[in-house]
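User: Please fill in residues for this 150-position structure.
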C-alpha cells in the first residue's frame, strides 16, 4: 500500500483539478480562465474497464469544419485514460461553449492516422507551442482524435 499511496494522492489531485475546471466551464457558459484562456470541451467517455461515465476537460482545435482533441497528457509516456476509454467506446458526448451558452451533442471519436494526423498536430503545435514541447518530451506519437458529430 505504501507505493500505491503517492499514486492515489496524484490521482486525487488530478480529479480535484478536473472538477474545478468542469465547474468553472459550466458556471461560465464554457469559458475557463483558470486554464489559460484555452478553448476546451468537456469530453464525456465511458470507462474502458469499469463502464462508468467519465468527464474530462480537453483542449480542442476546430479546423476545416472538424473538431479535434489531442491525447497529449502533457508529454507523458502513456496516453491519458480518456483516450483508452474512447478507443474502447467511441460513442462520446461533447460539451462546448458557444456565444449563446453550452452546447451538448453526441459524437463518435475517430483516431486520425498518418499524414492527416501529422498535419493536424502540426497546426495545433503552431497555434499552441506547448503541444510541440509535449511531443518532444515523449517517444510515443501523441494521438489526434476527431470528434464527429453523430
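Assistant: Residues filled in for all 150 positions:
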Amino acid at each position: 500500500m505504501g507505493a500505491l499511496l503517492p499514486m492515489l494522492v496524484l490521482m486525487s489531485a488530478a480529479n480535484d483539478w478536473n472538477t474545478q475546471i468542469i465547474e468553472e466551464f459550466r458556471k461560465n457558459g464554457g469559458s475557463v480562465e483558470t486554464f489559460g484562456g484555452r478553448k476546451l470541451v468537456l469530453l464525456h467517455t465511458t470507462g474502458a474497464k469499469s463502464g462508468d461515465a467519465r468527464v474530462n476537460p480537453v483542449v480542442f482545435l476546430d479546423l476545416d469544419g472538424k473538431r479535434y482533441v489531442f491525447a497529449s497528457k502533457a508529454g507523458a509516456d502513456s496516453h491519458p485514460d480518456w483516450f483508452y476509454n474512447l478507443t474502447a467506446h467511441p460513442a462520446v458526448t461533447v460539451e462546448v461553449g458557444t456565444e449563446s451558452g453550452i452546447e451538448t451533442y453526441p459524437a463518435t471519436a475517430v483516431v486520425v492516422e498518418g499524414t492527416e494526423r501529422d498535419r493536424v498536430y502540426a497546426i495545433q503545435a503552431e497555434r499552441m507551442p506547448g503541444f510541440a514541447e509535449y511531443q518532444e518530451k515523449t517517444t510515443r506519437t501523441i494521438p489526434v482524435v476527431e470528434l464527429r458529430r453523430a
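For context: The domain at 4-149 is CATH 2.30.110.10 (Pnp Oxidase; Chain A).
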